[in-house]
Amino acid sequence: MQEFTALDGALLVDKPSGPTSHDVVDAIRRQFGIKKVGHCGTLDPNATGLLVIVLGRGTKLSEKLMSDDKVYEGTIKFGETTNSYDTDGEILETKPVPPLTVEQLNELAATFVGDQMQMPPMVSAIKKDGVPLYKLARKGIEVEREPRLIHIYNFRFTDYRESFGAFKLACTKGTYIRSVAHDLGQKIGCGAHLATLRRSAAGKFDVADAKPLDDLLKLSVAELEKRVIPFLKLLAA
User: Fold this and answer.
1) How many CA atoms lie within 13 A of 212 on its CB side?
2) Would you call 214 helix, strand, or coil by DSSP?
3) Domain match, 164 and 57 both
4) CA-based angle 101:110:205, to the nearest 5?
5) pLDDT-above-70 percentage for the chain
6) Distance (Å, rounded) from C-alpha 65 to C-alpha 118?
7) Same domain (yes/no): 176, 144
8) What domain range is 93 assigned to?
9) What is the CATH number of the domain that holds 221?
10) Mean of the pLDDT values across residues 160-170?
């Protein structure tokens, strides 16, 4: 049996706003000359925070790690509906925002807790007949999507100021936080979209233990090896 190397495992990256999750994978692959690199759960370009990167034989555990629960924090802007359900999209509708308090928002947020069927947004990487939905959305084409079973463990607002609500949310894999923001806006009647998003945890991993992407790319291979969570430790976890 082939022995594991110091680059077989996982790397915790604090993704900045801007690059796609795939861009992060490419940057690490090119910078360190590692043939097999993958990620465990996509973050939208504007989203920041924990991105679990798997290296070498660690890629064999990507499906297992991808199925881990996630924790997010972010802000929702009320009064504007966009086609992507987040700040990247085109504004479709603007409505006045009724008086809102953190307490009122938390009463509504509580209705999202538990099992539910969630409709994925059109601007997503889900494929229809082999074509990603976001490519169809760019052409102005909207197709029927299959709702997916998700579970939200906790959803609470911590602050509300001038149409922006700050929240924390814990959920199962595959949950679109953009859809949660959109659906909440529909419940209130004024519309809403996701303004900012940061992933703070995935499974047993925390963003506090991650290193910013730019800092990681400045490391030598020897320094990078010290940041890698070994394959066998991942397997045990």
Assistant:
1) 5
2) helix
3) no
4) 105
5) 99
6) 22
7) yes
8) 70-201
9) 3.30.2350.10
10) 97
Which amino acid is present at 218?
K
Task: Tell the residue number behind the tokens 């009122």, with chain if given.
Answer: 104
Summarised one tens digit per residue, pLDDT across range 110-137 is 999 999 999 888 777 777 777 777 777 7
Whole-angstrom Cα distance, residue 116 to residue 181?
A: 15
- The residue type of 158 is T
Cα separation of 210 and 35, whole Å?
22
The single residue listed with the structure tokens 């949950």 is 175
Q: How far is 198 from 117, CA to CA, in rounded Å? A: 23
Q: What is the three-class DSSP state of 165?
A: strand
Query: How far apart (Å, rounded) are the C-alpha atoms in residues 162 and 18?
Result: 26
How far is it, in rounded angstroms, from Cα 194 to Cα 140? 21
Q: So what's the pLDDT on residue 2?
A: 65
CA angle 93, 97, 75 (to 5 degrees): 85
- Which residues make beta-bridge pairs with 10? 54, 229
Q: Say if 2 falls within a structural domain.
A: no
Nearest to 224 by CA among 27, 28, 15: 28
The residues carrying an active-site annotation are 44
- The total number of residues shown for the chain amounts to 237
Is residue 227, in this structure, part of any structural domain at all? yes
Strands 192-202 and 70-78: antiparallel
Q: Angle at which helices 177-188 and 102-110 pack, to 10 degrees?
A: 110
The pTM for the full model equals 0.91
